[in-house]
Amino acid sequence: MAASVFASELYSRLFPTGDAGRLFSDSAEVRAMLLVEGALAKVQGEMGLIPVESAAFIHRASMEIPLDPGGLAQATGTNGVTVPGLVAAFRKALEAPEHAQYVHWGATSQDISDTAQMLRLRQFLALLETNLRKTLHQLGLLAHTHADLPMPGRTYGQHATPITFGATAAHWGAPLLDLLTDLPALRDGVLWVSLSGAAGTGAAFGPRAAELRAEFAKALNLKDPQRTWHADRGPILALCGWLTRLCAALGKMAEDTILLTQTGISEVTLGASGGSSTMPQKQNPVQPSAIVALARQAIGLNAILQDAGLHRQDRDGAAWFTEWLTLPQLCLSAASALEQATTITATLTPNPAAMSSALSGTLDLIHAEALSFRLAEHLPRPEAQAAIKTLCKQAIAENTPLSDLARAAYPDLTLDDVFDPAHQTGQAPAEARAFAAATQNLIS
What we know:
Strand content: under 5%
Shape: elongated
Order of helices and strands: HHHHHHEEHHHEHHEHHHHH
Strand order of the largest sheet: 1-2
Distance between the termini: 41 Å
Structural class: mainly alpha
């Protein structure tokens, strides 16, 4: 088994990450850190903190000079962080000692590493938003098209009362819509620069430290947190929480899809399915199963990251390393789950015949609640419930539809609508249409 399925030649098609995978590579990390060093020098030059000529030279070189991540490995292993080796290699590559001395002026490794991470996370969230909008749009189409299509509602794995497939799609999508709504606030509360120096005091920057951080944030189009956050991992934890909610919502949809495609139910059909090495009849729900696995991984990784948010003193190497080990995997789990959900929702189709058969094939017992409420119009509610419960037991014992027994027992009651699924879906069609309307304009 590969150490990471996302980078594996064997498993990458089972757990695809799309363009997000490129953001969590050594080359992407090094490139982002160089851009941060260049932006820092540019702003410091504009503020007169370092020579303007040196600032311009460093900024231009940060966008042009490539550094081999492999060449930084030894220094990273020794120092426990990439930045010292990167700064040394960058200064050497500049071949201009008079300018190179101003690289990384006053910053600490964590400032560069955390800010570079935020540059990549900004791109990552943009990619997720695109796929999230696609998935919501496709769920909205399903909700609109099938708003009135009755199907069994199920609780504890048992038939409950009729709902509609459109409402099911809406219920899958509602938490995703909440997540999309939360994105602007998440970006404001997460995508921060870090520029606080060795122990978080900004002492090396002098009295203009706060001004420098603000200008640094503007240069990179990130937020100025207006404080030090070296040992406060709140932004990371907030992001992890959002990603875990995303995976949980997608995992719920995938779990339902697996159940709805299983033999004996077959109420939905997937656009693609997997085969067995020995059983020709198998059409396995591979993509939903992958999403469920990814959701479980995300939930576990989030627990590790929340624990790693407990830092000691002004910087905690062990907690920081734990974040490096787990955050990329959590991000890629979310990206892969959403990548597959986008495909599934574009090709998922309901099976109306199977839904209708399920509604009528259980002796009409799914309508027991509606029947009890109809009877409660003439009897106290507890008595009505008890009477219908007795009829349900009789229906099972005699293998006779509840509708036949009810009509015989209560010939004066109007019962046609009670046993018509189209009349017993409550607010499900309205919920489906409301969700469809909310997702109508999410993609151009």
